[in-house]
Amino acid sequence: MPKRPPKGEHGGTVMPKVNEAELGDDFSYIVRIADTDIDGLKSITYGLTSVKGIGIRTSMMICRMSGIDGNRLGGHLTSDEQDQLRSAIDDYATKVPWWMVNRQRDLESNEDAHIIANEVSMTKDDDVARLAEIKTWRGMRHRSGHKVRGQRLRSNGRRGSALGVQRKK
Predict the structure, then answer these.
(1) By CB neighbour count within 10 A (0-12 exposed, 13-18 middle, 19+ buried), where does 63 fall?
(2) How far apart are CA 51 and CA 41, in angstroms?
(3) Nearest to 48 by CA among 65, 27, 23, 25
(4) pLDDT digits (tens, 9 = 90+) for 105-138
(5) Ranges of each domain in the chain
(6) Which listed CATH number (3.40.50.1220, 3.40.50.1820, 3.40.50.620, 1.10.8.50) goes with 22-99?
(7) What is the three-state SS of 86-155?
(8) CA nearest neighbour of 116 among 42, 41, 38, 40
């Protein structure tokens, strides 16, 4: 039976404490990939998920494409391995099936792409602006700050001043 990781105070798993003597002199605590700081104490697979647009499945595939063991700590990567990861991230959309990318059939280029880092928020803002410009229902709901996907408005999602039941006098 496999050994389970230790439970934390609130039920989540606890990161194991790492002895700094075992890490070595060439260990880097922060690795910079795709304009994001990645924690060197995490494994490469989980460290890559801190980049916006890269989830766990994507990071596992990137590690497999670059030929790097995803269970190694990110701080042990050499500069050549970091370059391999960067090139694997850049070539990701061309080497995986269409259903594994996060931008399928882009409206402007009509190609599959995988957007990461700052491009994610910029693309989302552009999409919302396009919807509002052509005055679609979704675009107008985004602009007015209301719920977009048909959720209830009367009782949920209230912001601002507290609304309660009014008593008769």
Answers:
(1) buried
(2) 16
(3) 65
(4) 888 888 888 888 898 899 889 989 999 999 999 9
(5) 22-99, 101-144
(6) 1.10.8.50
(7) HHHHHCHHHHCCHHHCCECCCCCCCCCECCCCHHHHHHHHHHHHHHHHCCCHHHHHHHHCCCCCCCCCCC
(8) 38
What is the number of alpha carbons within 13 Å of residue 156 lying toward its C-beta? 4
Beta-strand pair 36-39/30-33? antiparallel
**Helix 79-90 with 56-66: angle, nearest 10 deg:** 120
* pLDDT attached to residue 113: 84
pLDDT range class, residue 1, cuts 50, 70, 90 = low
